[in-house]
Automatic annotation (TrEMBL):
Signal peptide limits: none
Entry-linked PROSITE patterns: GGDEF (PS50887)
GO molecular function ontology, one term from the record: diguanylate cyclase activity
Annotated protein name in UniProt: diguanylate cyclase
SMART domains registered for this protein in UniProt: GGDEF
GGDEF domain sequence ranges: 106-234
Organism: Chitinimonas lacunae
């Protein structure tokens, strides 16, 4: 059979044109393979269309899978009630900030908050109002903190805040502002007053995650012992 070699890697129109030229060439009129070529060309085009469709489906599925993975990454690090980071998400951010501290001379403010008498709130007013208190405090923190600060629900009624590039006096100032703003919150149960106790510490380049958390927890314990509704500095 005569004619130029058929390039099957081109687009459909180019391929169809080459097949038409091959089949209409008078020199190939008596070739017994013409029907086979016609059948193979048709089968090839059907297969190519099928592969293209599969490729489009695969691309769409890969995009959906990437979006799902991103969603799961966020969900796995977010507290579903408050929308803050959960313990896992906060630990990752904490370790990142500590790693950054080891390469710089800056400091990291750490606040550990606990809602005072939270069990009494749940027992007296119900768990729904207890949840509303947690959500309101989370919203207050999100509005107060800078875009590069981190807030998390550490567990139960405990919240944890990280304040990058913040010295001790700045960390204490934030703690006092949070105390004042929490006291000013108003609730549907008009006789309810909510306060928090805060443990304050500052992390430096040589600190570890465990040492920071231990100091913050000890400071929180001191704030509780001193009467609650206050902060204590480690």
């Amino acid at each position: 059979m005569t004619g130029e070699d058929t390039d099957l890697s081109g687009n459909d129109e180019e391929f169809d044109q080459r097949v038409d030229d091959l089949l209409s060439n008078p020199a190939n009129a008596d070739n017994s393979l013409l029907e086979d070529v016609r059948w193979l060309a048709s089968a090839y085009c059907k297969l190519r269309r099928r592969v293209r469709k599969i490729s489009l489906i695969s691309d769409r599925q890969q995009t959906e899978l990437m979006e799902l993975n991103r969603y799961l990454q966020v969900v796995s690090r977010t507290d579903p009630l408050t929308g803050l980071l959960n313990r896992r998400g906060l630990i990752e951010r904490f370790e990142t900030e500590l790693s950054r501290l080891s390469r710089s001379s800056t400091t990291l403010g750490v606040l550990m908050l606990d809602i005072d008498h939270f069990k009494r709130i749940n027992d007296h007013y119900g768990h729904q109002l207890g949840d509303e208190v947690l959500v309101a405090l989370a919203k207050l923190l999100q509005q107060r903190l800078r875009t590069y600060d981190h807030a998390a629900r550490w567990g139960g009624e405990e919240l944890l805040l990280l304040l990058p590039d913040t010295p001790r006096d700045g960390t204490e100032a934030v703690a006092q502002q949070i105390l004042d703003e929490v006291r000013a919150l108003r609730w549907n149960a008009r006789d309810l007053t909510v306060t928090v106790s805060i443990g304050v510490t500052v992390a430096y380049g040589a600190d570890s995650l465990d040492s920071c958390l231990k100091r913050a927890d000890e400071a929180l314990y001191h704030a509780k012992r001193q009467g609650r509704d206050r902060y204590a500095l480690a």
